Protein 1
Amino acid sequence: MPELPEVETVMRGMEKVLQGAQIATVEQRRPDLRVPFPPRMKEILEGRSVTALERRAKYILVHFNGAPSFILHLGMSGRVLLVPPAQDYQPQKHDHLILTTTAGDRVVYNDARRFGMVYLADEAGWEAHTAFAGMGPEPLGNEFSGAVLFEALQKKASPIKTTLLDQRVVAGLGNIYVCEALYMAGIHPQRASNSLSVEECESLTQKIRIVLERAIAAGGSTLKDHRKTDGTLGYFQYNFAVYDKEGKSCPDCDCGGKVSVERIKQGGRSTFFCPQKQN
DNA sequence: CTCCTGTCCTGCCGGC
DNA sequence: TGCCGGCAGGACAGGA
């Protein structure tokens, strides 16, 4: 499910409920996801107040008053459901972690494949956690630019598609938005990373920003109703140009509908692109 | 170092 | 209808 825009959307939804709230109970419904839940997480978090939430790459951070930050990654299939106080809720299959606030709001983490991850930071702070070691710049932040991308690509001979999935180069992109950004920039996914010009890197960074911002806007706009809040909303709202569009004609192609979106494998994962627009 | 493959896990979809 | 293979939004380990 989640790439940067979906994680941002989920984080904003959680923020509405958790910001300033006090955690009453932490319910672990199994001992682990991909790795065990942090030792003594229940004891550490219960009674703590949430001071702020933020997103770094595809991680959601929940900061507490007097406790280490809670770090959540949604993996491939992680979803967050927000249940308001007045609503009855029976835990569903794959509900693995439920946080309840003293106000009665519940934050339910559901993850069928259990590729998600939950950590607690230590006293060194969340930035020091190994998950963030060597991580590249935020694609929507000031430290990411065409020049920065160009510089990072110089030592990379691998295809630009796989390079953009490398979180050390830029942090937060996933398979969908890499395909979409390369399409918008008109760059073939199999181009060697170090063959891109400065101008192409400039264009690519702009397209990355645009596609992410559009997707966030589409997902965020649906969050007003908490009962509908779950991680799938962003994808339902956003129309992809090439992702999962194999055989369809791309939306703004100059081929007159004669060329269709192709699908190839790169690094074991599907890439979708328009051979007319991206060459 | 970089690059490539396999692996974790469940659900879903298409083909036979 | 049922079964089976392939594939899925991610990240990491291990080997070349």
Protein 2
Amino acid sequence: MAAMQSSELIKREIIRRINTRVWRPGQMIPGELELAREFGCARSTVNRAMQELARRGLLNRKRKAGTRVALNPVRRATLEVPVIREQIENAGAHYRHQLISRTRTAVPAGFRAAWHTGSRRKMLHMEAIHYADDTPFIYENRWINVAAVPAILEQTFNAISANEWLVQNAPFTHGALTLKACGADAISSQRLGIAGGAAIMLVERTTWTDDVLITRVLLHHRPEHCIESVL
Amino acid sequence: MAAMQSSELIKREIIRRINTRVWRPGQMIPGELELAREFGCARSTVNRAMQELARRGLLNRKRKAGTRVALNPVRRATLEVPVIREQIENAGAHYRHQLISRTRTAVPAGFRAAWHTGSRRKMLHMEAIHYADDTPFIYENRWINVAAVPAILEQTFNAISANEWLVQNAPFTHGALTLKACGADAISSQRLGIAGGAAIMLVERTTWTDDVLITRVLLHHRPEHCIESVL
DNA sequence: AAGTGGTCTAGACCACTCC
DNA sequence: GAGTGGTCTAGACCACTTA
């Protein structure tokens, strides 16, 4: 094997050997030292290449046990989650949002289990509609933990949506995303101006910083809405 | 600042400074050398930490220009796309699949534009149902480019599903994923044993190796199905 | 032209886990 | 216990971009 120059080339060569069945699924492949000798580079260069491929799911690595080609490579699709305004503007439409309600409220019973905060009256609930060229695009139903983001109370959300304000002012350490198809209920069909029962994409996002809940939002999309991603 | 020990701690410290507004969105942050001195570690350790955060979208890095805190951090959700069998078994259910049809056919007119292959009679079309504990979980509607995977013709798909066979035998270089909510049509509602018009999650996956199309599949999920992910 | 990040090296020590 | 990957260091050179 000719000497290679970078971890990028090493990655490609490893992928090539997997795809051409030189190394078969489940099979153990040579260790870092051996590959470093073969490729004429330092071990850490091979290490970087293999860690990247393991992160992508193509390799399974274990200390002492070595590195194996993944049996059923778990593909990961990367979904970009932009601010709603940018999502709409990137589609070439004019963005506008409208606040519908804004109340301090108790946490709905169904949420309380998932809520890590004990207090029951410290939630800000709000509804808004995001328009793309005057067509309702998303009906947003959001709860915000006031204790985590006290500055939220000073916001009117006229100039900037809660979505965008939170992205800029309440960074989170981790979050969960759930996608579900569901029939539009009375409220969301009215908000979106669509027929009741129409199939809509419901996106739920919840974010925390260090186990303190920041916000939970339900995004009801228009029926035609597609979420696209690459593998 | 006390000396830190690992790139993991450095990452957390950087995140902390971003979250607590020590470093504000859009602001330039110190260079690798300066942080390495502050944290009492090698530059490459800082480099690893910052590259990871840039990959996550929290930082924007440019040579010579330095590193800045991202203005509107585009969050990326990582969707795991496992083999359907594993998806069902991981949910604790018994997996079973049933082939419904298997014909060589022309490419449906609606697809031909997206198809990069000119030939019209070289497609294998198949339908299957994936069961979780004897409940129809996914109705699969798949087209396979025979020219790209000739060995597919020898498969009966009794012992192994097309999904799993392709994952193991037809590695792809890139793919596209589309998620959409739609009402069940006559066929899919019958296949899944659900009411017509019920909101179901429709997943479309298309994969290529080097611009040669391998397969395109429509997965019709049960109405309750949720797709979960982390941010 | 100069300063920043990107990558690589050679070596070291450590952590994990299989034997 | 021994062998593997995980991480770190100190130094080097290079690539890119801004000034």
Protein 3
Amino acid sequence: MQLPKGVEWAAHSLVVLARIGSSRPVPSAVLADVYGLSAPYLNKHLRKLAANGLLTSTSGPSGGFALARPAEEITMADVVEALEGRGPLFRCTEIRCDGLFRDRAAQIKAGRPCGIAAAMSQAEAAWRSSLAAVTIADLAAGLDDRYARRLSEFVHPDTRRGERQT
Amino acid sequence: MQLPKGVEWAAHSLVVLARIGSSRPVPSAVLADVYGLSAPYLNKHLRKLAANGLLTSTSGPSGGFALARPAEEITMADVVEALEGRGPLFRCTEIRCDGLFRDRAAQIKAGRPCGIAAAMSQAEAAWRSSLAAVTIADLAAGLDDRYARRLSEFVHPDTRRGERQT
DNA sequence: GCGTCCGTACTCGGATAATCTCTGTCCGAGTTGCCGAGG
DNA sequence: CCTCGGCAACTCGGACAGAGATTATCCGAGTACGGACGC
């Protein structure tokens, strides 16, 4: 089991948008070029973030994606939740109500909940809690200033619009 | 993303073995019947647990699987680790060293570690820590006595040989 | 009657398909900005 | 010179293949038990 690569891509893209600081939309193709990613595939993930209210999407020329709210209010938990959905990691299939105990299924479900599912749920809560403690703003602040400036110059070339080299 | 169903199966089987309390091996087919699972597939997962030292496997008649150590010393973290491996959940591909920053790759890697990977790693540590706090013995104790007895009678039908189980 | 040998049945073990999610790619719908024509 | 209309380019958006992992299944190698044979 492993988290999809899209989580990493989306998180890095959010950090880039946060570090740029501009509210102007950035096309997915530009964000993909920053880290050498597949543009259409990254677009798919960013679209999911937009559908969940983390990004705003704009069509047409000078369109793209932009943060929907301040980077301080976007956590890693939000990113994972937007991409992976809300009920992941462990899905209890209630096998304890099958086989030998099929006749007591209703009685078992009415009693104590499945201990394994409870333990998994609690561990998952700890995981999400830890992720919720880290915001995109925190991560953006961890970027070295030199690289951040290079980012800005690449994403928003103040010179003139329309040139995109390499 | 989602944990494989085998984790649930393996955990329940371990709890069953723990609750039985007997050191006599139990065939995978019997364990599968307890919860109505696919016997060969469950066997595959139990084999993995055996390969990681959680279970002992015995061939031939009266063979099967048995706990390799006391249930108090087997945690849910051990189960997940045995089945999923040690380095899961989030795998940082270091995309921050690609694209624009490919020429600075060595310099970046020598500097601060990737903040996103660090956050993910910390969250994963919290997850595993929570899982490590729950033992198979804890889960076995949570089973209702009535169902536990039915389990023992099914797995070790003493009628056959009048054998006594602990 | 007792010990030994063999046959049988039962178990794990690994190799082999089917299905689903993730990964990657493509082209179409919609929108914005630009340019030229007209007033 | 200013305004309006059409054109073109650029963007997101959803639909379409390929790869990998999970799910599921089967048959073979090995082993312990049970019975039969020989002493």
